[in-house]
Amino acid sequence: MKAQWFASVADIGYERWQQAIGETSYPFAQYAFYQALEEHGCLGDGTGWYPEYLLVMEDDDAPLAIAPTFLKTHSHGEFVFDWSWADAYQRYGYQYYPKRVWAVPYSPVTGPRLFTHLDPTGHSEEYVSLYAALAPVITQANQEREFSSWHLLFCREHLAEHLGQSDEYLHRISCQFHWFNKGYQSMEDYFSHFSSRKRKSARKERDKIAQQGLRLERKLGPELTPEEVQFFYVCYQSTYAKRGQTGYLSEAFFQQLVKSMAEQILLVLAYKGDQPVGASWCFFDDHSLYGRYWGCIEEFDCLHFEACYYQGIEFCIEKGLQHFDPGTQGEHKIARGFEPVFSHSVHYIDNPGFREAIGNFCQEEAKAVREYHQDTHALLPFKQG
Question: Full-prediction pTM beyond 0.90?
């Protein structure tokens, strides 16, 4: 086995990329996703994200796996927050940036961070051992350029626990809220599992949509027009504008995805009469729905809950998808049936002193996260027993 670094997906090429990932359906493993990021100003100069893809090959050069890593000059767009670590480095006269993240850019979605045809779902022991073999390769690449650290973000639990057995790697946990399909046949069937009070509350939220003269429409990627994508993009940017920020992604990025990976895109559009007023963008594969971006040009009561949560749940039930990852944070998801789950990251800190201090921080933080995880279970809407 051998490995080689590449600065763009084009340098690897579509054919080799596909040979490496095989039948992997995870949207964020697809060549088209990274190609669109690179070609439309979402990576590279001016973004603080610089791609370095690690292509793993057999000795005969046959593609085996791909690990997407990025050199970072800041900590924006990661959702595993390490600003305090960077501040500590600066206070003691050290450089925290550039660092390396092993992650999906701008996407706090749990899943494989090594894409390989050996195990498209990423659960086998062979798959975990491949991670363990590549971690020292990434460490060596960092040390050769005197980078402070590398960070494997939103990986699966069994992988984080395996790497975390070594004192070299720090295992960090946080909490998200995900929905799981327990064989529901319809939305009414789903709501029937809620307690009476919570069921009435959920139905009232959905009723408010019609009462305000709103209707929702779900459209798959192949059905979308450039004008609908353009409208979604206005909504996407409006969400950031409310916080005095600008969205990380360009309209051209979304327009290209509709051309290159349409079969994995769901757009929920909200209308007031014939006028679109809001939109929610999701990706999906053969197992999960991934809620990613949302916005509206006019505020309506409960529209966010309907467009971002209920419509996604209904889509999962109809399509037989088993899991809905709606994005990071948000305790308001609990009342709609999203359960607390741990998310996991692994961190390599080159400086031994900082590694020990950050390791202690992660351990103390984990205690609070576990308590919070336990407390939120009591808020779930489902019937007891």
Answer: yes
